[in-house]
Amino acid sequence: MADKQTKLVVGAGSALIDILINGTDDFLEKIGAAKGGMKLIDDSVIEKALAMHGSDLSIVPGGSACNTVTGIGKLGGAARFIGKCGNDEMGDIFKAGLKKNNVEPALITSSSPTGRVLSIITPDAQRSMLTCLGASSEADPREMTPNLFENAAIVHLEGYLMFNPELIQSVLEQATAAGARISLDLASFTIIDENFDRLHKIVDDYVDILIANEDEARAFTGSSDESEAMKILGQKADIAVLKIGERGSVISHYEKIVSIEPAGHGGVVDTTGAGDLWAAGFLYGLVNGLPIETCGAIGSRCGFEVCKVVGASIPDDRWEKIRELII
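^ thats the sequence. predicted structure below, dont judge the formating
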């Protein structure tokens, strides 16, 4: 069981390298990407898309749960990441990135290449993803051993793990056995559409903290009415979050509704990592016992700041400003 005084957040998800490019809606259509969503593909599709696009790109460590625990590490919190990567140069880059950002690596390695995500940023600052899971898809439920979850206060899962049912079940069972609260980011409406019944069962059986954006909430609850969707989410988990973009967010805390104002307006260049970094700020506040309104405010600021840069890495000087909210 976890030490009741622990403040460790453990992220479990896909260890991926993000390739960031700019593109038009027409480009998305040509390469078969779902606007604002995520599609699993093989590596050849990424290579074809890059050949069509050209050489103007950025390469950074990524993956949803990884982005979240990295944010927690940057805030000065205790963080660990569980995932599987290749025993290759990209895997080394991934591990070094975790350590640099104050995150304990709990990585399993494979002879397969490290997974990659092609993230296409359109002029409206939306990001659409094509994902080749690579080594991360080989994570074995038997590799999710108790020591990986030791002393976890919260285990945060990305919805993308739904593509490996046995793996996510193993993570859920080990996290529960460790005495941790379980946080789930629904990740993408495409995930929900393809795993609807199973996802609802997992939330009912295991999840304490449920995080969704507008599209994900609509797909998960079946309601286009924001208030109704929020009510359903709040009945599903002790804490439920509905992120509503530039309007801020709404939190159901044991079915009490709290509205969180946006941290700012304008200057948005890329929404990559916005939800992941919102979760980072929110979970950091939660595990440190801060009021739910403060948790939401930190999350909102983290999500806003990452939208002002390309990719999911907030510059160090902006982290200093975010940390001022905590003091």
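The domain at 8-15+64-112+138-323 is CATH 3.40.1190.20 (UDP-N-acetylmuramoyl-L-alanine:D-glutamate ligase).
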